[in-house]
Amino acid sequence: MNRAQTETYQELSVPAVLLGAVTGVLLTASFVYVGLKLGFGLSGSTVAAIVGFSVLRGALKRRSIVENNINQTVASGINTASAGVTFTLPALFLLSVAHPELESPPLFPLLFASVAGSLMGIVLIIPLRKQMIEFERLKFPSGIAVGTLLRSPGEGAAQAKLLAVGAGLGFLLTIGTEQGFLPGEWNLGAWFGAPAWLPVALYVSTANFGAGLLSGKGGLPFAAGGVLAWWVVAPIIATVGAITVPPAVEVAGSAMGLAGDAMLSDVIYGAMLRPLGIGMLIGGAIAGVVAAFPAVKAAVSSLSAAAALAKSGEMTAEEVDPKLLAYGAGGAFVLLYIASYFASDLIGPMHALLIAVVGAIWLALAGVIVAQATGATDISPLSGLSLIAVTLMIFLTGGDITASIILGVAVCVAINQCADMMSDLKTGHLVGARPKDQQLAQLLLCWLGPLVAVGVVYLLWNMPGDGTPGFGPASIACQQQLPSCLAAPQGDALAATVEALVSQDAAVDKYFAGAVLGGALSLVPIGGLAVLVGLAMYLPFSITLAYGVGCLVSMRIEKVKGRAFVGKKLVPLAAGLIVGEALTMLIMTLFKVALQMGGGAS
Amino acid sequence: MMRSVGFALVLAGLCLSAGFGARLGEQDRLAVESGLQAQTLDAAQVALQTPEGLGELQKAELERVVDAMPPAQVDTPIASQRMSDWIDVAGPMFSLGILLMIAGALLARRGAGRASGEQAHGALGFVQTCTRLREEIDAMVQAVGEGGDATALRAQLDTIQAELIDPLVEERASLIERHGLGTFAEYFGTFSGAERQLHRAWSALADGYADVALESLRSGEVLLRKAGDAFERAEAAPR
């Protein structure tokens, strides 16, 4: 059984870091392109883990689960920048078409901001590892899925089969919904004539259901939040007439096939529940950070104590030295300050300092929110928090769109990094990795993803070479409906929102009410309750309900079959459901893009 | 009982404050309705320009409604007006709901504190689990040293996780109530470190590195001893 008397058990190794870097760069470039083409991001962890199996274990004959974990940590750490950059930066280019005074976005402040965001996201979230993973025991369903995948060479045949069955189900259901053989949502309420503001619908996603299965009882508050929002608050609002659809609108809608209750439901969601949910996320996160302060303090003290013991040679260091984190935070802040100062000619040194301080505070808070939400449910409220970041920056820069979006890029990259780092650390916990090695690996290459992502966006924008836009509705390719059209839907939506924000259209009353609600709910002795309820209000109910069904099924199975059965059978099956959907989406997306490039289906 | 009453108050307060928190101020409500009207008008004009999907009756009806629809003229209020309007329509009931939530949360916390004081189940469980885990690890160290079957050893580690570690992890709320978050963090962080060492032993066994597995098991044993000591100090400290 032992191959080890002469070999070192590899973990943070050159091949793992190099492979992770190459995979990460390729995924980043591809996912930026996919994001501009189709408008959504993809996760790279599962792909990187599978590439690791082929290269590290297959071609290089290296046998180390924890080494492959470093490979996937590096690759996903680099790739995570693609989502942050693709969501925000294209808006700046698109706005420059309608507002020629914006000119071309300044490259260096942009690079400084994105690298600052990447570095700051990592160094600010690392001290919360113990709090989130060891004390709160957040599930991070995708982290569990990747952990299960990494452990699969050592699992028995039964578990491997269950992983494959789950992945197969994920594949079939995803193909079915994407190709239109199955509905994307099972609207049970419509079968018995329930109005749209009292929805009973299930989002068809094996990853969402699998996340519910992995979360079990811990995910129930999230489902309960959705029930509160959609089965209590929304019906009351609709029936007491707190908001109505004007009769003329109802008649016109009816002539166009739009039901009045569906329009009312959209208004209740968009103007009331969603902003209230964002406010709850903020209030819940602030209160959560305050409440967790003793544990965070103890965790940071233990980091310092462990660093001292490691220096004296008494034990191996398991976490990065807090001094390194402090230097990292300082360095990231300096980069953010430089980015703020050079983002616009109108920003002076003190103004830039204020922007950098507020930006860093919001970035840390939003990072905690996203890490907690992802940890509990696998769902990230990225778009809402990024919008608030841009709103905040528009306010602080006195309406300077360029500076606001550049700093929005920093925040968006940072909060993605927080969620990714924590999810990777969860995977690491499950395979017994050294947190220090993972943290160092991600810190080492945190600059690479933003540079690649920003570079690809610049390259694609300048691709035509004649001064016309390279992507967006105004690009020649999109106007002529060519297969090479990159519509940049996320950037387009953010650009529209930024224009609305400049005209001061922000739901401050709802953010305030939500924050107070979130703060009060945090007093209840159930960890993370306010963030979960806020997230449930922020999301469409079909997602929350399907996730809740997963939680209930998991609880029932645990009750009937016992905890060991859940660990041995349900976890690999649920992990397979998540991995199956992720991989199928990736393959289908690349296939679709290839078809479009070749002039096939659009 | 106190806990149940507390949670009932929280639920009532939450429904009340969420319901009123979601309400729009008067000007905002008119602006939202006006915005909906503008959107519908835009959609109707697009539909009338490409009326293939509309029947004759529908088209006539749509034209009639569009012609009769008054122009949408209500502007979105500025932030300060939005706030004051919302406070006018929802402030008192929203505040009442928040007060109910705070009262309920405090009652629920007191109830939970009493329950953990009355039942030392979690506390006893921690000591017993650490002892049992160390015994299991000792046996595994011996088995690994003697070149035991790696598959069986990994299965044993899975059983330890499911039967000893997971149930104790479920008890953490009562441990936090008993010792406070800061003290809990000191011993539970060490305990979690031991758990991670057992996972590392599992991975090393799967990869065929018995010496690494042995080292990890021994580190886990040391951490469990430290966690037990830290726990006893927490128990001995005045509360």
Can you summarize this structure?
The complex is a heterodimer of chains A (602) and B (239). Chain A is mainly α.
Number of helices of chain B: 9
User: What global shape of chain A is seen?
Assistant: globular
- Beta-strand portion of chain A reads under 5%
Count structural domains of chain B: 2
Number of domains of chain A: 1
Q: Structural class of the secondary elements of chain B?
A: mainly alpha
> What CATH architecture of the largest domain in chain B would you give?
Up-down Bundle
Low-confidence parts of chain A, pLDDT < 50 over ≥5 residues? none
Q: Which geometry of chain B do the CA atoms define? A: elongated
Task: Give the ordered list of helices and strands of chain B.
Answer: HHHHHHHHH
Q: How would the blueprint of this fold be written?
A:
The complex is a heterodimer of chains A (about 600) and B (about 240).
Chain A: H1 14-38, H2 45-59, H3 65-98, H4 107-125, H5 129-135, H6 141-151, H7 157-178, E1 185-187, H8 188-191, E2 201-203, H9 206-215, H10 220-240, H11 247-255, H12 260-291, H13 293-311, H14 322-343, H15 349-377, H16 382-396, H17 401-431, H18 435-444, H19 448-461, H20 476-479, H21 489-502, H22 508-521, H23 529-538, H24 541-561, H25 563-597
Antiparallel strand pairs in A: 1-2
Chain B: H1 2-21, H2 26-49, H3 56-68, H4 79-118, H5 121-145, H6 150-170, H7 172-179, H8 181-207, H9 210-236
